[in-house]
UniProtKB/TrEMBL annotation:
Membrane topology reported for the UniProt record: Multi-pass membrane protein
Entries under InterPro entries matching the protein: Bac_export_3 (IPR002191), FliQ (IPR006305)
Parts forming coiled coils: none
Keywords assigned: Bacterial flagellum, Cell membrane, Cell projection, Cilium, Flagellum, Membrane, Transmembrane, Transmembrane helix
Taxonomic source organism: Oryzisolibacter propanilivorax
Transmembrane segments annotated in the record for this chain: 12-38, 50-70
Name by which UniProt lists this protein: Flagellar biosynthetic protein FliQ
Record localization: Cell membrane; Bacterial flagellum basal body
Superkingdom of source: Bacteria
GO biological process: bacterial-type flagellum assembly; protein secretion
Family, similarity comment: Belongs to the FliQ/MopD/SpaQ family.
Gene Ontology terms: cellular component: bacterial-type flagellum basal body; plasma membrane
Function summary: Role in flagellar biosynthesis.
Amino acid sequence: MTSQFVLTMGRDALTMLLMIAMPVLGVVMAVGLLVSIFQAVTQIHEATLAFVPKLIAAVVVFAIAGPWMISSLVDFLRRTIEAIPSVVG
């Protein structure tokens, strides 16, 4: 196992992590921004008003993009596990 292989695997893992997390993080950040603007305009400072819409948005994104996320992770893990014999031997 060379250091180049380890760095490549680490880079691929971080890329996969970002690719999987980005849809959920993007939507939750956008909903949080909209709720914050709404709270600033109406001067309503309720903690649940900030939390519940973000939670609902995250659940919706997981429901829509969940199958893609799981299939991407399974493909990455399959490639990683199949590469073990070539690395060890």
